[in-house]
Structure formats: structure tokens, C-alpha cells
Design brief:
Elements lengths: L7 H27 L5 H9 L11 H6 L5 H45 L9 E2 L7 E2 L2 H40 L4 H38 L3 H44 L12 H36 L2 H4 L3 H4 L1 H23 L8 H27 L3 E6 L2 E6 H26 L4 H8 L5 H14 L2 H31 L2 H23 L4 H43 L10 H42 L12 H15 L1 H18 L1 H38 L3 H6 L5 H37 L1 H7 L2 H4 L1
Antiparallel strand pairs: 1-2, 3-4
Helix pairs in contact: 1-6, 1-11, 4-5, 4-8, 5-6, 5-7, 5-8, 5-17, 6-7, 6-8, 6-11, 6-17, 7-8, 7-19, 7-20, 7-21, 7-24, 8-16, 8-17, 8-18, 8-20, 8-24, 11-12, 12-13, 12-18, 13-16, 13-18, 14-15, 14-22, 15-22, 15-24, 16-18, 17-18, 18-22, 18-24, 19-20, 19-21, 19-22, 19-24, 21-22, ...
Length: about 775
């Protein structure tokens, strides 16, 4: 089988070193962002260095005209920023209080279920995959699975919270930099996104690596038990992500729909107008939904794909021969991904200069292309030094011989499939291409045709991503069975730091535009922030495409690990036990989407009524002489999201437990397959439909082309039709769509964690 070129000590240095480098790099980026001062004293020095440098610094002559020396504007921006930060922090603390109770309850449940597999016995048991050996007791798996669940949950919460803190720190700074030019504002927003991306990638990697080494002290040579208990890490990460995505999504969209419907359609005032009572809640929502929720979500994907790969590797030749270097190949790929993303980030912040609005989107797309190309080389190199030339991979009961170049190709296929999904998503959601322009054009005849065109676009946008995922699955399974699929998912997520930087950039730019409007800044500044935001909308859709594609692969890899662990030799689609599972599983994404959409609808209803009430009852509000009551709107969003996130969360968390206990592992395997197949389609179409409607509205508002000007200006009938499409798309793209990828992953990882219990005690109804 051969030895690896990289010794075990090399791995023990490489992985933590890459994580530390990522943390150091994010701190440097944060320091550079913090040099933009939010006080009038700091501003004088910022103005004086405006004569030189890159990315818009040279626009010194415009600075007087743009009000760079106007101290009132700076103070207003600082006030608005602190209101947004306060709202976001208080919401997340409230959310985490409820989620914390759930976390403890579920940890107890995990311990009881897994401990009862062998009747809480403390004596060693025969190993599942090698009956000739003795493994650690089931009680140990229960204890360590519970610990890793809590670790994953805590890391997920920390990822979301840190992201929110960074975004609320950077939003007003981006607004102030927009006065010096679009390039300067772009760099501030992008650096802030990079802080979040690198911190999250480093945290996920470091915590997992430390957990493996600490658990190894107890497990010793029992790697099967060690990596089975590590799967709790993925379960913890994704269960927190579910509540973060659903809760944050309901919050942000209730505020957004309420603000848009009353403000833009009924009262004809601009977006983010300070007279609109829901405007602060809307900007808070961008941070708790799009930033905190997304951070937890991508961390969950990363944790689960790593866990799926490690579980399969532990029962392959890596685990059997105790080859530590090859065993940690998934973590080594992620470590190299951090270094690749670091180099890629410099292309956006240091190597290229943005002088014009038209250069923003290409700069962000360049990030994806550069990181993918560099990572392809990195993966080939890592596979050569960290894997033996030939090894075996567990394949449903047998061992499949695999060469190191084949595994390298599995990762590369996932990486490039991610890029294809990203570009297809961009084609369907960017207003630079014909699909979104056609949707905008359909607004001529009202909201109904806009909705019809938007839905058709969403359904059509599913075709190529599904083919990309299908090819990826076939190639990676042919080369390295289920381990290949897990590594393809990790390949897609290997450039997570760059993906997150691009993703977080969008909501930061959106907030920056809102702050510019509320602070009453020059219309040219609002045009710059709108250009940043429109590019951010497209990149957010690309980010969601990555998340959904990787979720499909992760879910399939976890499904394979579950089937192996539960002792199912084949999943027979003709068996009635499996077919009922398939039907119910395919229905679950619809049930889940119905719950989340209805939650946004009912919360938005309360918000619309409150905004109308304030406009009608506060004298001088429309004239701008009286201040609206922002706090009430923030409270409506907070209360609604906390209350409404529990039923969808319970549906996802309880389904595998109920099906596994009552109907057994065969029916549960059907449920997992059904939810994967239907969930991916709905998630892609929902995200892209919503993204297209949003950018169709922005296309009309910007009026950048002759065609767009015939549909505008703001307040025209086509514009109002576009706003209605945008508000329908809001819960689709920011609540239901992104939450569905967590549904398919979470059910699969939960089934894997509880597989020993279901295999021993499950299927009660069929035993009667």
C-alpha cells in the first residue's frame, strides 16, 4: 500500500499552523478596516491622507463636495451604526437563550439514546466493522458524541455571532469610505467579509483538530469509535445553523417586506428612508439573517463533510493501519484551502485597483476563478504528499482499491462543480444578463407577469446545477465510493474563506447604502453603495448556490455512512418500507417551506400594520419633522422570529427520531433519500427566483441602460410591480431556500449519530 511522504509530525504542525495564519490574517484585515474612524477627530486625519494611494484615494477634489469634512454626517452614521449593532446583538442574545435550552435538552437526549444501545454498559464491545477486535463501550461513544455535539453547537453559534459583530462594525465605515470613491468602499466591505471568512474557516478547522487529538487520548487505537463520536460535531453545528437561518430569515424578511410594501409602494418614499419606521429593523435583519445565519450554515456544511469523510476513512485502510497523516487528509485539504484563499484575497484588496462601478462584479467573480484554479494545484500537491500511492476505501461491506490521483480528482471535481453552480447562479440572478432583464421587462404589464417570469426563471435555473451535482456524484463515487463523495463536498467547501468573504460583502454593502440614505448623504454616494449592493446580491446568490450544492453532496456522503453504520446492505426502492419513506421524505421540504413562508407572511402582516399605524398617527412623520418609533418594529421582528423558528426546527430535528424509532432504519433511509432529491430542487429554484426578482427591481432603479430607463424611474408602475416581485421573493431567497439545505444535511447527520440506537431498538411498529 505504501507510505505517505508527509510524516505525522508534519500534519500536527501544518493544520494548527494554517488555522493560526488565518486568524492572524483576519486580525490584520480587521485592523485595516478599523483605521476608518467613526468620530469627527479621526476623520481629519482620514481626509488628509486622501491625496494619494489606491482605489479612489486620489479623488481628493471631490471630497469637499461629497461632504467629507461634514462632522454631522459622521456622527449620524455612528448613531445609526450603534442602533443597528444594538438591535442585532440583543436579537442574537435572545435567540441564543432559547437555542441554548434546546442545545442542553438535545445533548441529554443524545447521551440517553446512545448510552442505551448496550444498556449503559461500561465493558468493551466487539467492533461493528471488525468482529475480531474489541472496541470501547457504547457508553463512551454516548459521552463523547454528546461532548462533540456541544462543541459543534458552540462553534456554530460563535461563528454566527462573530460574523454579525464584524458586519455591524464595518457597515458605517463602508458608507464613509464611499465618499472617497467606489474602490475605497469596496475594499472596506470586502476586507470585513474576509475577516469573517478566515475566522470561521480557522475556528471550524482548529476546534475539530483539537477535539480529535483530545478524544484520541481516551480511544487510543479504537479509531472506529473515535470518529463515530466525532460525528456529533457536525450535528451540533447544523442544528444551531438551522435555528440561526430560520430565526434570522424570518426576522430580516418580516422587516424587509413591511418596509418595502408600505414605504415604497404605498407612500412612494425611497428605500431605507429614515421616515420609514421599519428601516432599522430591516438593516438589523441583514446582519442576523444573511450574516449570522449564513456563517452558521456554512460552518455546519464544513463540519459535516469533514465528519462524513472521517467516519468512512476510519473503517478504510487509513483507519485500520492507523495512518494518521492519510486519516486527516480532509483537514489537510481544508488547511491548504485557507492558504489558497489568503493569496486570492490579496488579488481583490492589493493587486488590482477598482476605479469604476463596472469593475466590482468582475473583481468578485475573479475571486472564485483564482481560488478554484489555485486550489486545483494545491489539492494535487497535497494528495501526492499526504496519501499513500494506493490504499483501500470502505464500500458497503467490501474494500475498494483507490490510487491517490483518483482521490485528488474527486476533490477537484467537487471544486469545479461548485464553480459551475456559482456561475450558472450568477447568470440567472445578475441584472447584467438577459434572464433578469426579461423579468424586469415583464413588469411593464404588472406584478402578475413579473411573478410568472420569475417562477419560470427559478425552475429553469435548476437544470445545469443538478447535472453538475450528478456528474460530480458519479465521478467521485466511481473513483472512491462514499469517501469520494464526502471529499467532493469538501472540495466544494475548500475555498470557504473566499466564499464567505464574497457572501458577507453583500449585506455589509446593503447596510452601507441604508446608512447613507438615513444620514441624508449626497445621492452620488447612494449610487455607489447601490452598485456595491447589486453586485453583493448576485454574490449572495452564488454563495447560496455553493451552500446548496455542497449540502447535496454532504447529505449523500452522510447517507452512505448511515446505511453502512445501520447495517443495511442495500436500499431496495421496491420495498414498501422504503417507498413510504421516499414519499414522506420528498414531502418534508414542502412542509418545511410552507411553515417558514407562512411565518414570514404573518410577521410581515404585523409589520405592515404597525408601519401604516405610525404613518397615520404620528403627526409630521411624512414631512420629516417627527421621528418614527423604530423600537416597536424591532420588537415585532424579534418576537415573531423567536416564536416562529421553533415549529420548523422541531419538524427537522424530530422527523429522523420518530421515523427511526417507529419505522426503523430502512424507512429512514427512504426519508433521507426523498428529502435530498426534492429539497435540492426547491432550494435552488427558491434562491434564484428571489435573487432574480431583487435584481430586476435594482435594474429598473439604477436606470443604467436605455432599456432600464424605459421601465423607470422609481415610483413608476413597472417599478411598483418589480417591488411586489421582490417582496414575494424575499422569503424564498432568504428564509425557505437557504434553510432547506440545512434540512437535508441535518436529517442525514442526525440519522448517522443515532444509527447505533435505531439499528438496535428501532422499527417498533414493524415488530408488533
Amino acid at each position: 500500500m505504501g507510505e505517505t511522504l508527509l510524516p505525522a509530525i508534519g500534519v500536527e504542525i501544518l493544520i494548527p499552523a494554517c488555522a493560526v495564519v488565518a486568524i492572524a490574517f483576519s486580525l490584520v484585515q480587521w485592523h485595516l478596516v478599523s483605521r476608518v474612524k467613526l468620530s469627527p477627530h479621526g476623520l481629519d486625519s482620514a481626509a488628509t491622507d486622501g491625496g494619494a494611494g489606491k482605489n479612489g484615494h486620489a479623488e481628493y477634489l471631490i471630497e469637499e463636495e461629497e461632504g467629507l469634512t461634514d462632522h454631522n454626517v459622521v456622527l449620524k452614521c455612528a448613531d445609526i451604526q450603534s442602533a443597528i449593532a444594538e438591535g442585532a446583538t440583543s436579537f442574537l442574545f435572545t435567540e441564543y437563550k432559547y437555542v441554548g435550552i434546546f442545545m442542553v435538552a438535545f445533548a441529554v437526549l443524545t447521551f440517553l439514546f446512545l448510552g442505551s444501545v448496550e444498556g449503559f454498559s461500561t465493558s468493551s464491545q466487539t467492533c461493528t466493522y471488525d468482529p475480531t477486535k474489541l472496541c470501547k463501550p457504547a457508553l463512551a461513544t454516548a459521552i463523547f458524541s454528546t461532548i462533540s455535539f456541544l462543541l459543534g453547537a458552540f462553534t456554530s453559534v460563535a461563528s454566527g455571532f462573530l460574523g454579525m459583530k464584524i458586519a455591524t462594525y464595518a457597515n458605517a465605515r463602508t458608507t464613509l469610505e464611499a465618499r472617497k470613491g467606489v474602490g475605497k468602499a469596496f475594499i472596506t466591505a470586502f476586507r470585513s467579509g474576509a475577516v469573517m471568512g478566515f475566522l470561521l474557516a480557522a475556528n471550524g478547522l482548529l476546534v475539530l483538530y483539537i477535539a480529535i487529538n483530545l478524544f484520541k487520548l481516551y480511544y487510543g487505537d479504537d479509531w472506529e469509535g473515535l470518529f463515530e463520536s466525532i460525528t456529533g460535531y457536525g450535528l451540533g453545528g447544523s442544528s444551531m445553523a438551522l435555528f440561526g437561518r430560520v430565526g434570522g430569515g424570518i426576522y430580516t424578511k418580516a422587516a424587509d417586506v413591511g418596509a418595502d410594501l408600505v414605504g415604497k409602494v404605498e407612500r412612494n418614499i425611497p428605500e431605507d428612508d429614515p421616515r420609514n419606521p421599519a428601516v432599522i429593523a430591516d438593516n438589523v435583519g441583514d446582519n442576523v439573517g444573511d450574516i449570522a445565519g449564513m456563517g452558521s450554515d456554512l460552518f455546519g456544511s464544513y463540519a459535516e463533510s469533514s465528519c462524513a469523510a472521517l467516519v468512512v476513512a476510519s473503517i478504510s485502510s487509513f483507519g485500520i493501519n492507523h495512518d494518521f497523516t492519510a486519516m486527516l487528509y480532509p483537514l489537510i485539504v481544508s488547511s491548504v484551502g485557507i492558504l489558497v484563499c489568503l493569496i486570492t484575497t490579496l488579488f481583490a484588496t492589493d493587486f488590482f485597483e477598482i476605479k469604476d462601478v463596472k469593475e466590482i462584479e468582475p473583481a468578485l467573480k475573479r475571486q472564485l476563478i483564482i481560488s478554484t484554479m489555485l486550489m486545483t494545484v494545491g489539492v494535487a500537491l497535497v494528495s501526492w504528499i499526504a496519501l499513500p500511492p494506493s490504499f483501500t476505501i470502505f464500500n458497503f461491506g467490501s474494500q475498494k482499491v483507490v490510487k491517490n490521483w483518483q482521490l485528488s480528482l474527486c476533490v477537484a471535481v467537487g471544486l469545479w462543480a461548485g464553480l459551475i453552480i456559482g456561475f450558472v447562479t450568477e447568470y440567472y440572478t445578475s441584472n447584467a444578463y438577459s434572464p433578469v432583464q426579461d423579468v424586469a421587462d415583464s413588469c411593464r404589464t404588472g406584478a402578475a407577469t413579473n411573478v410568472i417570469f420569475g417562477l419560470a426563471l427559478g425552475y429553469k435555473s435548476v437544470i445545469i446545477p443538478i447535472f453538475a451535482i450528478a456528474v460530480c456524484i458519479y465521478v467521485s463515487f466511481s473513483f472512491a465510493a462514499m469517501y469520494g463523495i464526502a471529499m467532493a463536498a469538501l472540495g466544494m467547501l475548500s475555498t470557504i474563506a473566499t466564499g464567505l468573504a464574497i457572501d458577507a460583502y453583500g449585506p455589509i454593502s446593503d447596510n452601507a447604502g441604508g446608512i447613507a440614505e438615513m444620514a441624508g448623504m449626497n445621492h452620488r454616494i447612494r449610487e455607489r453603495t447601490d452598485a456595491l449592493d447589486a453586485a453583493g446580491n448576485t454574490t449572495a446568490a452564488i454563495g447560496k448556490g455553493f451552500a446548496i450544492g455542497s449540502a447535496a453532496l454532504v447529505s449523500l456522503a452522510l447517507f452512505g455512512a448511515f446505511v453502512s453504520r445501520a447495517g443495511i446492505s442495500t436500499v431496495d426502492v421496491l420495498s414498501p418500507k422504503v417507498i413510504i419513506g421516499l414519499l414522506v421524505g420528498a414531502m418534508l421540504p414542502y412542509w418545511f417551506s410552507a411553515m417558514t413562508m407562512k411565518s414570514v407572511g404573518s410577521a410581515a402582516l404585523k409589520m405592515v400594520e404597525e408601519v401604516r399605524r405610525q404613518f397615520n398617527s404620528i403627526p409630521g412623520l411624512m414631512e420629516g419633522t417627527a421621528k418614527p418609533d423604530y423600537a416597536t418594529c424591532v420588537k415585532i421582528s424579534t418576537d415573531a422570529s423567536i416564536k416562529e423558528m421553533i415549529p420548523p426546527g422541531a419538524l427537522v430535528m424530530l422527523t429522523p427520531l420518530i421515523v427511526g424509532i417507529l419505522f426503523g432504519v430502512e424507512t429512514l433511509s427512504g426519508v433521507l433519500a426523498g428529502s435530498l432529491v426534492s429539497g435540492v430542487q426547491i432550494a435552488i429554484s427558491a434562491s434564484n427566483t428571489g435573487g432574480a426578482w431583487d435584481n430586476a427591481k435594482k435594474y429598473i432603479e439604477a436606470g443604467a441602460s436605455e432599456h432600464a430607463r424605459t421601465l423607470g424611474p422609481k415610483g413608476s408602475d413597472p417599478h411598483k410591480a418589480a417591488v411586489i416581485g421582490d417582496t414575494i421573493g424575499d422569503p424564498l431567497k432568504d428564509t425557505s431556500g437557504p434553510s432547506l439545505n440545512i434540512l437535508i444535511k441535518l436529517m442525514a447527520v442526525e440519522s448517522l449519530v443515532f444509527a447505533p440506537f435505531f439499528a438496535t431498538h428501532g422499527g417498533l411498529l414493524f415488530k408488533i
